[in-house]
Specification:
The complex is a heterodimer of chains A (582) and B (510).
Chain A (H helix, E strand, L loop, with lengths): L2 E5 H8 L5 H11 L2 E7 H9 L1 H4 L6 E6 L10 H11 L9 E3 L10 E3 L9 E7 L6 H16 L8 E7 L7 E6 L5 E2 L8 E2 H8 L18 E5 L5 E4 L3 E2 L12 E7 L2 H15 L10 E3 L9 E6 H8 L5 H9 L5 E3 L5 E6 L9 H12 L19 H15 L3 E2 L5 E2 L1 H4 L14 E2 L9 E2 L4 H10 L7 E12 L7 E12 L5 H14 L10 E5 L5 E11 L2 E9 L1 H6 L6 E7 L5
Chain B lengths: L13 H13 L4 E2 H8 L3 H12 L5 E13 L1 H9 L2 H8 L5 E2 H5 L4 H10 L3 E4 L7 E4 L7 H10 L8 H9 L3 E13 L10 E2 L4 H6 L6 E2 L18 H15 L3 E2 L6 E3 H4 L23 E3 L8 H12 L14 H5 L1 E3 L4 H12 L7 E10 L11 E12 L3 H14 L5 E5 L5 E11 L4 E11 L1 H7 L5 E9 L1 H8 L14 H6 L8
Parallel strand pairs in B: 7-8, 9-13
Antiparallel strand pairs in B: 1-6, 2-6, 3-5, 4-5, 10-12, 13-14, 14-18, 15-16, 16-17, 17-18
Helix pairs in contact in B: 2-3, 4-8, 5-7, 13-17
The chains are: A alpha+beta (582), B alpha+beta (510).
GO molecular function, one term (chain B): tRNA binding
GO cellular component, one term (chain B): cytosol
Protein name (chain B): Phenylalanine--tRNA ligase alpha subunit
């Protein structure tokens, strides 16, 4: 969930009202935001770098507000204020429109060449004309781009934004792709020209930009935008040119978004334009100038009041629902035909893709906590999953038999299930994880024993004997399943003491079989027979058969298994499948 | 144990005990053990031992522990009380014709006594005396107040001294203040001046012969702990799981088969109308995923359903704009460790949609999910997710709140409120908050919502059917219930088994 940091006093000034922290928190809650933290630059610095570094930093109160991940229109002060003011009916939702240049000149054009297809095929652009920046507006403009980059743009992989002082460049502009050796320009805030290849190595150590190099680094062609005179505007998604950089004094801004996902590029551009056209000339006419591709598309959906009432569980007139929706920046009117409502989806609300999204906005405006809570009349009879029912019953009786339940991780290292148990990883039929951050998460366990041995090792100081069990799932590769693997519910128990206590573990098997109502015997019953298993001490291992089918092993663990598990005492164990007893 | 603690190491001899009891018989209102010691002429510690022995016999005596401070002479103080202060001894040693200083200094009390007697102006030193410095008395008689004071203390009359005087004597290491623990002893309810031998335990022979009737039994010490039973223990997290299962079963919910940790991207993401590539997913941080290298791909899907899913993602449909991106089967096939049990809910709802006639269902599951995220005190790579799902015609948001109210009431949580939230596969989505009486604030206790039509309609569920669902983690309520701050102290092999042994039963509503 993205967090937007705004200055409290600036926010209240824009809202035209002062709130206490509690009141503002309440407003956020109602609207679906979360006032996450009340802090200041000084406090943040002092926390992260110590009081000394924080000396002299600003102690202006900051509100950190958590915004839903799909509400890109709330990622800056301008958008937050607009959303809340409309919600509180203090402001009518502005209507955004694109206009041609006031001087009657041709709209700007951005030409996209075929070469971009292989690396970053999409681009959209717009011009904001006659904008007036202040220090605060300028900072918000930069901050919004950063927020969009981190969220909808997925760290610039999907979309990258470039903003330029239009008065320093001249169109038409060309978006193309070239070999890195053929690109040469002075990048933003640098004093000399670099080739693209040089830039990549130059930014390798840049704490900010180095995260974006991988997006194009190994491509044969790099994306690049030129103006009509061959001036480089930007090399997306890494860096803009220095020539066209914007400043507080910039009046006309050229905004380009290059992308691998065209839909998201359009949304991103719409957000920047709609948020900052507020500061263009003729306030609240919402003039945004136009260039190719920018849509600022409004869409109209028609739905019935009855639909909203039935889905939310309220009983409001169509007029009242239209009013609720209008408070959510979805300008709505009753159409006159029955209870049909026409809802206009503005370009700021890319999150509205279905009638259910409109229904949710009606519910938010109505107030979730004003909806009457009612029990559905759905009549059903409950059933337990037989496997879990059996597990629950066995767990109870294993504790009655004196064993204590362990709860261990399903993920572990290859070593845990192979080397430490004197097994070959290939024979384990283990499922392997492709992107583990550490060795602890290399594979899914194929038996429960490693977890129990680790639990013993962590509890060596406890009085002996230690008697542990776990009934849980392991995962094994299985071609017959749609995903090629299946869970297997197993019972594992260990007895750890000064003597191996095979008879204790054997006794536990007898007790489990008694509980499962399986009698000792060769055919329809259960029996154990000597077996070789590398995890166990030679001659001290038996295989368990039930109704003639092998279901597991028991025995005294091999001394190497003991020492590789950082244990010092003899240990006997049982590991068996319980699924045959369903 | 209570029975085991009746024995005592060194039983005071019966004679002493009976002397004590006889003494006690004569006094009304009780006596102090220190006085008993004085009366019987034995050390106080011996009497303390006797009192303990008598206590063990039951209600023969009753006692109250007292602690008092009193002043006691030090070794040197006792010597002075007997022989006089050093200065007095020096004074008394000097004849009228005086004494050579070096001879006086050789006396045992010489050095200290000389300087004290000098400062008291009892004596004088003639340094110029022929034959060496010589000491003479300056007064006829003296009063040895130090000795007098010490003798007062010795007689137990230290109260007659002023505090300043006592402090002064303490500074001279002649007095010390000691704390004495003594007993105030009174007659008990079964007071007697004779001691009878007591039996430790009832035996089969006593029962057979009836001899128990004549015997006295040593009382038990009910203050001691019993012997721990030899038993196993359920893990606290699993105890809480059992309670949650119970709650769902009480509410008529059927358990879903969640025993499939490995899931395809298709069921984990696409079927829920989550964008297939988690890179593109706006809430990706919630879905840091463990992918599988072996077996890397799932190979079997319901083909026509898959086509419908592809369509709703890439082009829209069912009243939706869709996400408008290039949906690829290669991504959907990728195997992973499921990031939520909702993948199983999707399978179950798809299965439900394949029934000839729709029937309403209530489903639940509690099982492991996996997240490849940064670990901290409250986050592990795997945790248990609790999930409830209801599918029926015409379910409302109000119904979801009603079900949540019933569910949380069973957890002992009655004060609920709901916050609008974003979840990619539910619309509306609500975070559930409960008022925490201890923290005096609202805390998030779960997530909930109505599944999106883009998820349900491609499955083939009828248009009017709504599916409401909610989820929470099993670990968090368990940590709160058992007062555990670090998740590693609850889950995994590093848990302290003592915690497992000691954890109480779990009743979530009390």
């Amino acid at each position: 969930m993205p967090t937007v940091s705004v200055k409290r006093d600036l926010l209240f000034e824009a809202l035209g009202q002062k709130y206490t922290d509690e009141e503002f928190d309440e407003l956020c809650f109602e609207f679906g935001l979360e006032l996450d933290e009340i802090t200041s630059e000084k406090e943040i610095l002092s926390r992260e770098q110590g009081d000394e570094k924080a000396e002299g930093a600003s102690d202006v109160v900051l509100y950190k507000i958590d915004v839903p991940a799909n509400r890109y229109d709330l990622l800056c002060l301008e958008g937050l204020v607009r959303g809340l003011q409309v919600f509180k009916e203090k402001l009518e939702a502005p209507r955004y429109k694109r206009v041609s240049p006031a001087d009657g000149g041709e709209p700007q054009r951005l030409v996209i060449t075929e070469e971009t297809a292989s690396v970053r095929p999409h681009a959209v652009a717009a011009v904001l004309r006659n904008i007036t920046f202040t220090q605060e507006r300028y900072e918000s403009f930069i901050e919004l781009q950063e927020k969009l980059h981190q969220n909808i743009c997925r760290k610039r992989t999907l979309v990258a934004i470039g903003t330029h002082d239009l008065d320093t460049i001249s169109g038409p502009f060309t978006y193309t792709a070239k070999p890195p050796g053929d690109i040469r320009f002075k990048p933003l805030n640098q004093s000399k020209e670099y080739t693209a290849a040089e830039l990549i190595s130059h930014y390798k150590t840049d704490s900010h930009l180095r995260h974006y190099l991988h997006i194009i680094e190994n491509e044969p062609l790099y994306p690049i935008i030129y103006d009509n005179n061959g001036i480089v505007l930007s090399m997306p998604p890494v860096i803009n040119g220095d020539h066209s950089k914007i400043s507080l004094k910039t009046k006309n801004i050229f905004i380009e978004c290059t992308a691998t996902d065209q839909t998201k590029a359009k949304i991103t551009l719409d957000m920047i334009v709609t948020m900052f056209s507020e500061y263009c000339d003729e306030p609240f006419t919402w003039v945004s100038s136009y260039t190719l591709c920018i849509e600022l598309a409004y869409r109209t959906e028609t739905l019935s009041g009855d639909f909203i009432n039935k889905r939310v569980g309220i009983n409001e007139s169509a007029e009242s629902i239209a009013q609720l929706l209008t408070r959510m920046c979805l300008r709505s009117e009753v159409s006159g035909e029955g209870d049909l409502i026409q809802v206009e989806i503005p370009p700021t609300r890319a999150d509205v893709i279905h009638a259910c999204d409109i229904m949710e906005d009606a519910a938010i405006a109505y107030g979730f906590n004003n909806i009457i809570r009612s029990t559905p009349r759905t009549y059903t009879v409950a059933n337990q999953l037989p496997l879990n029912k059996l597990t629950e019953l066995l767990r109870q009786d294993l504790t009655a038999a004196g064993f204590t339940e362990a709860l261990t991780f399903a993920l572990c290292s290859q070593e845990d299930i192979a080397d430490k148990l004197r097994k070959n990883i290939v024979e384990t039929r283990a499922v392997h994880i492709s992107n583990p951050k550490t060795a602890e998460f290399q594979v899914v366990r194929t038996c429960l024993l490693p977890g129990l041995l680790k639990t013993l090792a962590a509890n060596r100081k406890m009085p002996l004997p230690l008697k542990l069990f776990e009934i849980s799932d392991v995962v094994l590769k299985d071609e017959t399943k749609d995903v090629g693997a299946r869970n297997n519910r197993r019972l594992c128990a260990v007895y750890y003491n000064k003597s191996p206590g095979f008879e204790v573990i054997h006794g536990l098997l007898d007790r489990v079989m008694q509980l499962l109502d399986v009698k000792p015997g060769r055919n329809q019953g259960y029996h154990i027979q000597a077996a070789e298993d590398s995890t166990f001490f030679p001659g001290r291992c038996a295989e368990i058969f039930s109704c003639g089918k092998s279901i597991g092993h028991l025995g005294v663990l091999h001394p190497d298994v003991i020492s590789r598990s950082e244990l010092t005492m003899p240990c006997s164990a049982i590991d068996m499948d319980i699924e045959p007893f369903l | 144990g209570a029975a085991g603690a009746t024995g005592f190491g060194s039983m005071a001899d019966t004679g002493l005990l009976e002397s004590l009891l006889r003494l006690l018989e004569k006094v009304d209102g009780g006596t102090d053990s220190q006085d008993v010691a004085a009366d019987l002429g034995v050390d106080h510690q011996v009497i303390v031992g006797a009192v303990k022995s008598l206590q063990a016999l039951g209600e023969v005596i009753s006692t109250e522990q007292k602690s008092s401070k009193h002043w006691e002479l030090t070794g040197e103080g006792r010597e002075i009380a007997e022989q006089g202060s050093h200065e007095a001894r020096v004074f008394n040693a000097i004849p009228d014709e005086g004494l050579p200083q070096n001879g006086l200094m050789k006396m045992p009390s010489g050095k200290v006594g000389f300087s004290k007697a000098m400062s008291n102006k009892w004596i004088r030193l003639d340094k110029a005396h022929e034959g060496g410095p010589r000491v003479f008395k300056t007064v006829e008689t003296i009063e040895d107040t130090v000795r007098d004071k010490l003798q007062l203390v010795q007689k137990g009359q230290s109260a007659k001294l002023e505090d300043k005087e006592k402090t002064e004597l303490k500074k001279r290491k002649l007095l010390s203040e000691v704390t004495v623990k003594s007993y105030w002893i009174t007659k008990g309810s079964s007071f007697s001046t004779t001691i009878t031998k007591q039996e430790t335990e009832l035996t089969p022979e006593m029962i057979a012969s009836g001899s128990w009737k004549e015997k006295k039994f040593k009382p038990y010490n009910f203050e001691a702990m019993g012997v721990a039973p030899d038993c196993g223990h359920l893990h606290p997290l699993m105890k809480v799981r059992t309670q949650f299962r119970q709650i769902f079963l009480e509410m008529g919910f059927t358990e879903m088969p969640t025993n499939n940790f490995i899931e395809s991207s298709f069921w984990n993401f696409d079927s829920l109308f989550l964008q297939i590539n988690p890179q593109q997913h706006p809430a990706r941080d919630q879905h840091d995923t463990f992918f599988i290298s072996d077996p890397a791909l799932a190979h079997e899907f319901p083909q026509d359903y898959l086509e419908r899913v592809k369509q709703v993602h890439s082009e829209g449909g069912y009243g939706s704009q869709g996400y408008k991106y290039d949906w690829k089967i290669e991504e959907a096939q990728k195997n992973l460790l499921r990031t939520h049990t909702t993948a199983v809910s999707a399978r179950m709802l798809y299965k439900l949609a394949q029934q000839e006639k729709f029937t309403p269902v209530k489903y639940f599951s509690i099982d492991r999910v996996f997240r490849n995220e940064t670990l901290d005190a409250t986050h592990l790579a795997e945790f248990h997710q609790i999930e409830g799902v209801v599918a029926d015609y015409g379910l409302t948001l109000g119904n979801l709140m009603g079900v949540l109210h019933q569910f949380f009431t069973k957890l002992g949580i009655t004060k609920l409120r709901f916050k609008p939230a974003y979840n990619p596969y539910t619309e509306p989505s609500m975070e559930v908050f409960s008022y925490h009486e201890g923290l005096k604030k609202w805390v998030e206790v779960g997530n909930s919502g109505v599944f999106r039509p883009e998820m349900l309609l491609p499955m083939g569920l009828p248009e009017g059917v709504s599916v409401i669902a909610w989820g929470l983690s099993l670990e968090r309520p368990t940590m709160i219930k058992y007062g555990i701050n670090n998740i590693r102290e609850l889950v995994g092999h590093k848990v302290n088994l003592q915690m497992v042994y000691d954890s109480p039963i779990c009743r979530l509503d009390s």
